[in-house]
Each structure stands twice: as C-alpha cells, then as structure tokens.
Amino acid sequence: METSQSNVPSMAPVAACDLVTVPTRQGLEAVDILRRASAGDGVGPVLHDDGDDTLGFVVPAGTAAAWDVPGSTCTRTDGRGLRLVPEPPVEGPEWLVPPGEADLATDPAVLRRALGEAARMIEAADSCR
User: Fold this and answer.
1) Alpha-carbon distance 17 to 51, whole Å?
2) C-alpha of 10 from chain center
3) Whole-angstrom Cα distance, residue 98 to residue 114?
4) Taking the CB of residue 115, how many other CB atoms lie within 10 A of it?
5) How far apart are CA 19 and CA 73, in angstroms?
6) Cβ–Cβ contacts within 10 Å for residue 37, how many?
7) SS3 assignment, position 123
8) Tens digits of pLDDT across the chain (129 residues)
9) How far, in Å, CA of 73 to CA of 71, rounded?
10) pTM of the predicted model, to two decimals?
C-alpha cells in the first residue's frame, strides 16, 4: 500500500464565527475603548483591510442574526473563509489584533457599546472643526 505525505503546513482549525465590519476610523476608536475598558482582555481578533478602509471584529457565531448597528455589517461565516491563524496573508487584510493575543471573540454587546461610543466621539471631534 502506497501512502503519500504532504508538505503543506497544517492550518489552524476554521472557527465558527461571524465578522462585524466597520469603517477603520470608528473601528480603531472602538479597539481603544475596548482595551481601556477591560485592560486589553475584552477584544477578540481584529482584521484591518487597508484597501477597503475597514476593520473586522471576530464575534461569536450567531451574532449576525440580530446585528443592527448603523454603519456596520455583520457577516455569518459558518467557519468558511476565515482562518484564525496569527500570520497575515501575503496580500490583503492584516491582523490588527492577532489570534493568540486576544480573546477568542469580542462580546457583541460590549462591541455594540464601544462602536456607539466611538461614533459619538468621532461626531464630537468632527463638529469642532
């Protein structure tokens, strides 16, 4: 019996999660708010897509069913298309908060509050110009 061996490195298991996507400016403010509020322990992995000017927060699977925060979208992944590996891809989005340096996912209720606070901060800053 012949066996074959693969030289392809093993990938981390695909996580069942959803992804909340927001504009970069609001997302960066929200990351700061989350880190301050919980000493850095309350934020899960975050992707930065400079090309689309967005940040993506990994949240628990099922979040998309009830997500209704204006200015953001929440996409179901069902574990497809998102691999939680610390290394960023060669091109495209990069980890702002890599897996392994973060909680498994950001709590959706906590993220909702942080995004709201971030939006209010941005609005206040823009009105001062």
Assistant:
1) 23
2) 23
3) 19
4) 23
5) 8
6) 15
7) helix
8) 444 343 333 334 446 889 999 999 999 999 999 998 866 567 899 999 988 899 999 999 999 999 999 999 999 987 665 555 555 455 667 889 888 877 789 999 999 999 999 999 999 999 887
9) 7
10) 0.79
